[in-house]
């Protein structure tokens, strides 16, 4: 069917929802959404950090047998001719190009209470154009009807899956978000079965996440999930099951989930990564070690542009993708497709009070793309991610650059035009001081993950006018716990006035190194220095 034809059909079907859905259906939640994702701690005084981060989450729902469901046409992402098996679905899960999704104007449970199939179809068209082949969506029991899903909400889920399939996307379903009803295992089991049974052998649905960011230290939750997993397994035996842990719980949470479910194991584990992207490889390897023999996916990752620049967001995702590739993790899901407009997140959720939650999108709320969208498109196309995303020639505007200051109180780099080694822009330090912690600098981490023993090269061009003090570049090394291991410096730029001079560093990553930052440094400088055309390899 043509795009216009699909949209016409979707619009017509939305009239059915307007009849089925109760007027003024309210967004509901058993408890406020947890104050999501931790921001990355700022670097201690002695050490520079490049990025920060908070968090978010999505929702999905079921379809009773009596509700008219979309035709079970098979997705392009899964074998069309055969009923899916546990093995075939799990293989697809591990390679899925997954995007986390809520509409920009209706986040969390509002996606379902204000269901808009035309908007959803347009958004999933964009996701497909980006390179996605799978979409993760969260289903909320209190919005869908509990313990028996409401017919109109089951129809909405069916329609969502049909729309996704029309765009060539399979669906991952996440259940029991905003949920604390751990004493009602019978009701929980009945609800999950009602939601999932229609899709037991449906190749359009890839997997089930039993609970979003499950807390394995909650005794009641542990008792509940030990009973829910076998119940879901019985209802949909070929559907891979997982549970995710929050960014704050990390690898330790994965190990705990594996332990508490040893008798009723999941099929894979879902790692939500919102840590420091400079150390992403070390953190992913910790998660793999914690998961043991279970495969992992990175079900959520990203950086809010409310706390970092759009350039920092693009660099963040590039580092996570590059680290996942080295670690052999084939599925990394950005959070989320789009930013949220004011009022889009239900006010009964704590998430709605957190500004960072509105700005994780690859696209702005008006649909325009951020720099991160190009990074995701490149990665999903199987093309290499390079340092070109890092603004190494200082041609980007300040708000679109991933560079960050260190010891800025002792000297701030400013972007200028008119003096450049190449292109139009450079950065300039004038009138700097210094501290016992080091020289003020502008700093950046590369896309390529650090591995101990590998050789590194860095360079930058510098030009001085009436220089005093010290001007140099340096590679600064950190371990997996963010402990500073030392640095390797270039020869200093001569004092006085100089033409453009190439400063270089060649060194080997020390034992225990998990991250590196390049610093452009100038301290005790009463004159002016310009830096331009940086390279790292």
Automatic annotation (TrEMBL):
Determine the domain of life of the protein's source: Bacteria
Question: Keywords on this record?
Answer: Glycosidase, Hydrolase, Signal
Asked if Signal is a keyword of the record, the answer is yes
Q: A GO molecular function for this record?
A: hydrolase activity, hydrolyzing O-glycosyl compounds
SUPFAM superfamilies recorded for this chain? (Trans)glycosidases, Galactose-binding domain-like
Hydrolase as UniProt keyword: yes
Which residue range or ranges hold the Glycoside hydrolase family domain?
Answer: 107-330
InterPro entries according to UniProt:
Galactose-bd-like_sf, GH, Glyco_hydro_5
| Family recorded in the similarity comment | Belongs to the glycosyl hydrolase 5 (cellulase A) family.
Protein name in UniProt: Glycoside hydrolase family 5 domain-containing protein
The source organism is: Actinoplanes cyaneus
């Amino acid at each position: 069917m043509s795009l216009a034809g699909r949209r016409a059909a979707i619009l017509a079907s939305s009239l059915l929802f307007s009849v089925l859905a109760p007027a003024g259906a309210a967004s509901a939640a058993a408890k406020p959404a947890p104050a999501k994702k931790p921001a990355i701690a700022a670097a201690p005084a002695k050490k520079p950090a490049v990025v920060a981060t908070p968090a978010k989450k999505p929702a999905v729902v079921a379809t009773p047998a009596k509700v008219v469901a979309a035709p079970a046409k098979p997705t392009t992402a899964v074998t069309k001719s055969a009923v899916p098996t546990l093995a075939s679905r799990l293989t697809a899960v591990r390679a899925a190009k997954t995007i986390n999704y809520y509409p920009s104007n209706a986040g969390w449970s509002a996606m379902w209470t204000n269901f808009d199939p035309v908007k959803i179809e347009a958004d999933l068209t964009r996701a497909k154009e980006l390179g996605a082949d799978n979409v993760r969506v969260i289903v909320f029991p209190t919005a869908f009807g509990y313990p028996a899903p409401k017919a109109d909400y089951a129809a909405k889920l069916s329609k969502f899956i049909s729309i996704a399939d029309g765009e060539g996307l399979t669906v991952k379903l996440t259940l029991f978000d905003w949920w604390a009803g751990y004493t009602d295992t019978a009701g929980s089991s009945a609800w999950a079965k009602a939601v999932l049974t229609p899709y037991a052998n449906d190749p359009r649905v890839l997997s089930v996440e039993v609970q979003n960011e499950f807390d394995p230290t909650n005794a009641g939750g542990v008792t509940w999930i030990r009973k829910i997993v076998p119940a879901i397994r019985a209802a949909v035996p070929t559907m891979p099951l997982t549970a995710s842990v929050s960014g704050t719980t990390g690898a330790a949470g994965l190990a705990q989930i594996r332990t508490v479910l040893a008798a009723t194991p999941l099929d894979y584990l879902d790692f939500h990564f919102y840590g420091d992207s400079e150390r992403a490889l070390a953190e992913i390897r910790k998660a793999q070690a914690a998961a043991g023999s279970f495969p992992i996916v990175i079900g959520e990752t990203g950086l809010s542009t409310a706390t970092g620049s759009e350039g920092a967001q693009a660099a963040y995702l590039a580092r996570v993708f590059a680290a996942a590739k080295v670690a052999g993790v084939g599925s990394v899901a950005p959070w989320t497709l789009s930013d949220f407009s004011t009022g889009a997140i239900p006010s009964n959720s704590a998430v709605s009070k957190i500004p960072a939650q509105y700005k994780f999108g690859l696209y702005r709320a008006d649909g325009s793309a951020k720099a991160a969208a190009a990074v995701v498109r490149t990665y999903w196309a199987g093309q290499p991610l390079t340092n070109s995303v890092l603004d190494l020639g200082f041609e980007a505007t300040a708000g679109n650059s991933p560079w960050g200051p260190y010891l800025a109180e002792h000297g701030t780099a400013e972007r200028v035009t008119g003096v450049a080694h190449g292109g139009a822009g450079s950065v300039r330090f004038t009138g700097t001081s210094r501290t016992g912690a080091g020289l003020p600098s502008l700093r950046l981490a590369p896309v390529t993950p650090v591995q101990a023993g590998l050789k590194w090269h860095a360079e930058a061009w510098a030009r001085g006018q009436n220089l005093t003090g010290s001007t140099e570049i340096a590679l600064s090394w950190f371990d997996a716990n963010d402990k500073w291991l030392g640095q390797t410096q270039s020869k200093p730029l001569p004092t006085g006035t100089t033409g453009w001079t190439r400063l270089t560093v060649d060194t080997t990553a020390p034992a225990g190194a998990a991250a590196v930052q390049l610093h452009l440094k100038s301290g005790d400088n009463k004159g002016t220095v310009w830096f331009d055309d940086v390279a790292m390899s």
